[in-house]
């Protein structure tokens, strides 16, 4: 069971690629999705996935969260 962080509020404002590196280092997860503005995603909850919401400039716009 993963006991690392489940949320990364300190990544808001950083680049998506930097966020991916931090999340991989913290969790070992490889299923990390970068979600562009207005991009649709499924509503299922998955403990092996992190979604990173970014703005039009590729900066993290809300805290990435496992699920």
TrEMBL record:
<dbReference type="Pfam" id="PF00280">
    <property type="entry name" value="potato_inhibit"/>
</dbReference>
<dbReference type="InterPro" id="IPR036354">
    <property type="entry name" value="Prot_inh_pot1_sf"/>
</dbReference>
<comment type="similarity">
    <text>Belongs to the protease inhibitor I13 (potato type I serine protease inhibitor) family.</text>
</comment>
<protein>
    <submittedName>
        <fullName>Uncharacterized protein</fullName>
    </submittedName>
</protein>
<dbReference type="GO" id="GO:0004867">
    <property type="term" value="F:serine-type endopeptidase inhibitor activity"/>
</dbReference>
<keyword id="KW-0722">Serine protease inhibitor</keyword>
<keyword id="KW-0646">Protease inhibitor</keyword>
<dbReference type="InterPro" id="IPR000864">
    <property type="entry name" value="Prot_inh_pot1"/>
</dbReference>
<dbReference type="GO" id="GO:0009611">
    <property type="term" value="P:response to wounding"/>
</dbReference>
